[in-house]
Specification:
The chain is mainly β. The protein folds into 5 domains: 471 residues, TolB, C-terminal domain (Neuraminidase, 6 Propeller), CATH 2.120.10; 66 residues, Sandwich (Immunoglobulin-like); 101 residues, Sandwich (Immunoglobulin-like); 126 residues, Galactose-binding domain-like (Jelly Rolls, Sandwich); 119 residues, Trefoil (Acidic Fibroblast Growth Factor, subunit A) (Trefoil), CATH 2.80.10. Helices cover 1% and strands 40% of the residues. It is built from 2 helices and 66 strands. The protein is globular. 53% of the residues are buried. One of its GO terms (molecular function) is hydrolase activity. It comes from Polymorphospora rubra. InterPro entries: 6-blade_b-propeller_TolB-like, CBM6, Cellulose-bd_IV, Galactose-bd-like_sf, Glc/Sorbosone_DH, Ig-like_fold, PKD/Chitinase_dom, PKD_dom. This is Glycosyl hydrolase.
Length: 938
């Protein structure tokens, strides 16, 4: 998703008198809890087929919702919950780029104009841009604001496109696109843009790298702090009828001002990913992500913090020099990335000096303004915000309209409240404003979902919310579009849930539909009405339908309660084209890794219609996961290969970061399948557990990252998932104890699962005095499991656990496929068990002939061992299966480069002739670097 890791920076423009710390704000006299029963959450669309990877939404005058997916797809969901793809535009999708925001012209009823912000493909090279060099011109691209017209049937008229504005982009590296669109009451268009800067080599502080041979994408001074650049800004323009634009009065720099861009309304942002304009006041609300330094360094700058900002007039919000309330502690130092020398603090009050050689704008910038609400970092978090990652998303301001005839509009009590949302923490919080504009009481809005990606009030006064779900750079079954209606205690509409099996396949296709999960909140009996998308219908709750003709069909279920209220859900069925099956053979789900590792991968794709798979169309992407979101870092094409997981230079060791490997294939019929495996870092903080029993988390200065798991008593536990411990040999835990000490056990599957290892925790004399204890891991399971750390000891408090580390070695007991050239599997020909049967490669199929078990130095399948015929040593010697005999002809040693060495001969397992065709034999050959000698073992 198009968001930075967990923090935000870039102070917002607010009046000094309105800058407060929310922790100090007390509830106003009129505050009252929000009654959940007064609202109904209506599911309008759900799942990948209906929302894709959800990015942005805009509500049309007829209450239908336009929403975008990063891959360039634009969808429309009508008020009844029927979703259709209305258009697709080609996009460049490296890292966070792709299709971002969507906005609806205020005069849509007359002109049917909508605006999209996206990355056009251009001629940008594939892959990653170089980190160092002298010529980066090939990677210079743009993100484009374009206007389109919707046809009468609401399809996107791609031929109507008019380019309004191009924003420069340094492509081929991450991060920060921004891309939100909104309008004020005068019809001016606002566009948020990110700093387009890589944050991963700055230790979590300001990326201001001025080394002359460095990719410019590591220096945010060229963008956010550049008065002559459109990035890291809130832009304000007036779009003319012909698609050109003019500059409204009152922007930060008057037209004609040297070394400035007149489009800039506000500057100094890092990634203002979500913003909204209160049309009643013209004030702009911004959620700006910040960097991830775990602690303040007086020689570098502050610990990471994020901000909600309320912009009441043009100004500079500080990034990459100033954050928060712009105190000395919250200000960055000049830093020489070549020498590591620290310089003076930047002058936030007088205006920072931008002395980067990449700066094309003014040298002395406007003074930095303070944040409206800051949280995370040394400032702490408002209690009402709770805990979790810091990922602010600025939602809308509600304005009550007594003349609006809608019966589901929000009540007047919400008038003027700013609806702040949080992606990672998963909340929606209306914030009251005090008379001076400072934040007052923070309420909690009742909703059920995962991660708020975008939100807006519609013409009906209802709140619309786009939920990202739980995927990493792709949608999943939790991705959804919701509408929140205010009912005030009236009859609540029923909820419809529609599923179908199968969702795709050859014609004719018989599909079983289900309404399971549909319900009436008041418990009334429902009636059912299905429309199958081809004109046929059914009133059965769970009908079966056979589609004879090829095509894509939207089947719609409408349920009705006794009072006549309805709920609708739909499901898309593809007939004549089966969705591809994508299997990640390696890395394994939950596999242990360290940042800096090069991780081999193998992917198997099957598609009935495509037949032989073109591996150049198979893509593996590495996403850096952080808490509940992630950043796409790099990708490569192929059924096998390797990706290097870069050392992360933004987060400290205490951050909850991990690796996500995403395999993707789109078939000839346009159906795309993603499969993801999460990899776990060898070193992890105990407080990042997924579930627990009995324990609590405590702040502690001597703990890594300042937090530890404590209040541990006999029988308590913490758990993490997924984990694959098949190559773990030992573990170390960082612990303290002023209690009675005890034992840590590593278990698989459950708190009472098999004990894989134990370590004894001594009394250290103080809860702040840490030591390390170590235990051996024995007989770990070959597959993926849930890791449990269980705690035992005497009565009372036992010990605290700060962090733990696994040490890995060569896996000795894994079972599964051995995957090699072009993603093909090592296969015993015809599944025969006779001694001397040839071993070959073949399309992976999961049969016993392809299921190998590593036992010591042997590789076993079908009860026989992988064997060098006659213990030969010559190139081309046959590889076969043979009764296991313990000789050197059956010894195989995995090498760090992915080859499989027979130590006796000194030669490697090799696919004959580098031929990836099914049934190609394997033989012995001099070890080399070719792909035909690279193997991924279970």
């Amino acid at each position: 998703m198009s968001i930075s890791r967990g923090r935000a920076t870039g102070a917002a423009l607010v009046l000094a008198a309105a800058t407060v710390l929310v922790q100090a704000a007390g509830p106003p006299a009129g505050a009252h809890p929000i009654n959940a029963t007064d609202f109904q959450q209506v599911t309008l669309a759900r799942g990948v087929a209906e929302v894709g990877e959800p990015m942005s939404l805009a509500v049309l005058p007829d209450r239908s919702v336009l929403h975008t997916a990063r891959n360039g797809t634009v969808r429309r969901t009508d008020a009844a919950g029927t979703t259709t793809v209305i258009g697709t535009i080609p996009v460049y999708t490296h890292d966070e780029e792709g299709l971002q925001g969507i906005g609806v012209d205020p005069n849509f009823a007359a002109n049917r104009h909508v605006f999209l912000y996206y990355a056009p493909p251009l001629s940008t090279p594939g892959g990653d841009a170089p980190i160092t060099g002298t010529d980066f011109s090939a990677w210079q691209g743009v993100n484009r604001l374009a206007r389109f017209t919707l046809n009468a049937d609401f399809t996107l008229n791609t031929g109507s496109q008019v380019t309004v504005l191009d924003v420069p982009a340094d492509r081929g590296l991450c991060c920060h696109v921004g891309g939100d669109i909104d309008f004020d009451a005068a019809g001016n268009l606002y566009l948020s843009t990110g700093d387009d800067t890589n944050p991963f080599d700055s230790a979590g502080y300001a990326p201001i790298d001025e080394r002359t041979n460095r990719n410019p994408g590591y220096d945010a001074q060229r963008t956010s702090a550049n008065t002559n650049d459109l990035r890291g800004k809130i832009l304000r323009i007036r779009v003319n009828a012909n698609g050109t634009y003019s500059i409204p009065a009152g922007n930060l720099f008057a037209p004609g001002t040297a070394r400035t861009r007149p489009e800039i309304y506000a500057m100094g942002f890092r990634n203002p990913f979500r913003m909204s304009v209160d049309r009643a006041t013209g004030h702009v609300y911004v959620g700006d992500y910040g960097p991830d330094a775990g602690s303040t360094n007086p020689n570098r700058g502050p610990s990471g913090q994020v901000e909600f900002n309320r912009i009441t007039s043009p100004g500079n919000y500080g990034w990459p020099y100033c954050t928060g309330t712009n105190t000395a502690t919250e200000t960055y130092n000049e830093w020489d990335f070549a020498t590591g020398a620290s310089g003076p603090k930047y002058d936030c009050a007088g205006g920072p000096t931008n002395n980067s050689f990449r700066n094309t704008g003014l040298t002395t910038l406007p003074p930095a303004r303070a944040a409206w609400i800051r949280y995370g970092g040394d400032a702490g978090t408002p209690p009402a915000f709770g805990g979790g990652s810091e990922s602010p998303m600025a939602g809308p301001v509600y304005r009550y309209d007594a003349a609006n005839p809608s019966t589901t509009k929000f009540p007047q009590s919400f008038d003027g409240q700013f609806f702040a949302t949080e992606l990672g923490r998963g909340w929606i919080k209306p914030i009251h404003l005090n008379a001076d504009g400072s934040p007052g009481t923070i309420d909690s809005f009742p909703w059920v979902g995962k991660q708020v990606m975008d939100s807006a009030f519609g013409p009906d006064g209802a709140l619309y919310v786009l939920d990202y779900g739980t995927g990493y750079f792709n949608g999943d079954e939790n991705s959804a579009l919701y509408r929140f209606d205010h009912l005030g205690g009236g009859n609540r509409a029923p909820t419809a849930v529609a599923t179908a099996t199968p969702l795709s396949g050859p014609a004719p296709l018989t599909v079983s539909f289900s309404s399971a999960g549909s319900a009436d909140p008041e418990g009334g009996a429902l009636t059912y009405a299905w429309g199958f998308g081809d004109g046929s219908t059914s009133t059965a709750a769970n009908p079966t339908k056979t589609y004879a003709a090829r095509g894509t069909y939207t089947a719609t279920l409408t349920v009705r309660d006794p009072q006549g209220a309805t709920g609708t859900a739909s499901v898309t069925v593809s007939v004549g084209n089966t969705a591809p099956t994508v299997t990640i053979n390696s890395p394994r789900s939950g596999q242990l890794f360290s940042f800096g590792d090069t991780v081999p991968f193998s992917i198997t794709v099957a598609d009935p219609e495509d037949g032989a798979i073109d591996c150049s169309k198979v893509k593996m992407t590495y996403v850096l996961g952080h808490d509940s979101h992630g950043h796409q870092i790099t990708s490569t094409n192929g059924c096998s290969g390797s990706l290097t997981v870069p050392n992360d230079g933004e987060h400290d060791d205490a951050a909850n970061i991990f690796a996500v490997f995403d395999a993707e294939y789109t078939d000839a019929g346009g159906l795309t399948t993603h499969t993801q495996h999460i990899l776990q870092p060898r070193h992890r903080q105990a407080e990042h557990h997924k579930t627990s029993s009995g324990v609590n988390t405590f702040a502690k200065a001597t703990a890594e990252g300042g937090r530890t798991v404590g209040d541990i008593h006999n029988g308590d536990w913490i758990a993490f998932e997924p984990y694959n411990l098949s190559n773990a040999t030992s573990f170390t835990a960082r612990v303290s104890s002023a209690g009675v000490g005890g034992t840590i056990s590593v278990r698989a599957g459950s708190p009472t699962g098999t004990v894989l290892g134990t370590a004894t925790v001594p009394v250290t004399g103080s809860w702040d005095t840490f030591t390390e204890v170590t235990g051996t891991i024995a007989n770990p399971p070959a597959g993926t499991t849930t890791l449990h750390l269980t705690f035992a000891g005497g009565s009372g408090a036992l010990f605290d656990v700060d962090a733990f580390t696994f040490v890995t070695g060569t896996t000795s007991g894994g079972t599964g496929p051995v995957v090699g050239l072009a993603g093909k599997c090592l296969d015993v020909r015809s599944g025969a068990t006779a001694d001397g049967t040839q071993v070959q490669i073949y399309t992976c199929n999961g049969t016993a002939a392809q299921t190998w078990t590593r036992n010591g130095q042997t590789m076993r399948a079908l009860g026989k061992c992988l064997d060098v015929s006659g213990a030969g040593t010559a190139n081309g010697t046959k590889i076969q299966v043979w009764t296991c005999n313990g000789t050197g002809a059956q010894a195989w040693s995995p090498q760090a480069d992915g080859t499989l060495l027979n130590p006796v001969s000194g030669k490697c397992l090799d696919v004959s002739g580098n031929n990836s065709a099914d049934s190609t034999p394997v033989h012995l050959w001099t070890c080399g670097t070719g792909a035909n000698q690279k193997w991924t073992l279970p």
